[in-house]
Amino acid sequence: MADQDPNNANNGSGPEGAPQIAVLTQYIKDLSVECPNSPAVFQWQAQPQVDIQFNINVNNVSDEVHEVILKVNVAARSDNGAHFLIDLSYAGLLGLRNIPEDAIGPFLLIEAPRMLFPFVRQIVAEAVGNTGFPPLLLEPIDFNAAYIQQLNTLQGSEGGEPADGAGEAPAEGSDQTNS
Fold first, then answer.
1. Which CATH architecture has domain 20-141?
2. In this predicted model, what pLDDT tens digit does every residue of 126-171 receive, in sequence order?
3. Which of 17, 93, 107, 128 has the smallest count of CB within 10 Å of its CB?
């Protein structure tokens, strides 16, 4: 205790100028849950094919605050029609200070969605469960691989790298069978 300085302006947050990252808040930005063919859907014998698509968007709120939105669309369909549809946009406000410019894009498009994903997974599971179907547990998403794949696609089509990593992100699509 004797070596702590109560007058330290950083309040234990590390040396001045050190990189700082904070999740300021997380929230559901938009949620749509549909079971358009109920109650008939509960009589169908066909096992639905579950299609899962995801996307990441980044909005700059201020110089040091960024909104990261993880959008997930889940559609369970069979030859009979739609069993359930879930559209979720889950966002987090992240404060970034003293982060190297070349690290901001990868952080916002890889690490931030990775931090938000467990909450998205829980919301989707509960939403599907609330439609009368067994909860759907989303498989983990490798945001790093999706980011690298998108960078390779962008470099191949444009011959260069994205400017700052902000905007629409590099992750799209997945198929998962409901078990």
1. Roll (3.10)
2. 999 999 999 999 999 999 999 999 888 888 876 544 444 444 444 4
3. 17
